[in-house]
Design brief:
Layout: H1 16-27, H2 30-44, E1 69-71, H3 87-91, E2 97-103, E3 109-116, H4 126-130, E4 136-138, H5 155-158, H6 179-182
């Protein structure tokens, strides 16, 4: 038969003074004062702040941050780098890239329209990785909010009854056709002023 060894052998509490000593030992340990000292030091230190005054100060993001896409131009000529190969639209997992190309007078392929629906984009970076001309890169833009209420819709307004009734949002920054009907009144609009 195997014998068990008691590992955690604590002193028995017999009196109230023993209970008070245990309370003091558990409550005011050395680790508590080390943590409080570090917190107090960070509070009084003036040159190392961890907060930003957001609208006035912008956060610096890493170069590898995958923000809103940028279409690059050639430095010498100023023309677009995009050659219209369509690899970015083919590899896009969310099907948010739309590209229209045509041939010009000299039988060269020209990109007529290049649009990215940022509402559907998952910012995976596959489009930037596959581009042979480094024409599309991810920028450092991280503010995707809008100040206008008509850009937003309630969940019940976005759900459609039938798949055939669905329509795509025209693109980031453009209002839907029924934007005026989608604006909801705030609760204060129903207050009658005497």
């Amino acid at each position: 038969m195997m014998a068990y060894i008691e590992v955690d052998k604590r002193d028995e509490i017999r009196t109230n003074s023993d209970r008070f000593k245990r309370f003091l030992k558990r409550t005011f340990s050395l680790e508590l004062f080390i943590g409080l000292g570090h917190t107090f030091y960070q509070m009084i230190k003036k040159n190392n702040t961890h907060t930003f005054l957001y609208p006035l100060e912008k956060m610096e993001v890493d170069r590898r941050y995958r923000g809103v896409h940028n279409l690059m131009r050639m430095l010498e000529s100023g023309s677009d780098r995009c050659i219209g190969c369509g690899l970015c639209a083919k590899i896009c997992v969310s099907n948010c890239i739309d590209m229209d190309t045509y041939l010009d007078e000299s039988e060269r392929k020209v990109v007529g329209n290049y649009s990215i629906n940022l509402g559907r984009c998952v910012y995976c970076g596959l489009c930037a990785d596959v581009c042979p001309e480094i024409a599309i890169v991810h920028g450092g833009e991280y503010e995707l909010a809008s100040e206008q209420r008509a850009y937003y819709a309630f969940r019940d307004d976005l759900l459609t009854k039938s798949v055939r009734e669905q329509s795509e949002f025209e693109g980031y920054g453009s209002l839907p056709k029924d934007a005026d009907e989608r604006v909801k009144l705030t609760p204060t609009a129903y207050i009658e002023v005497e």
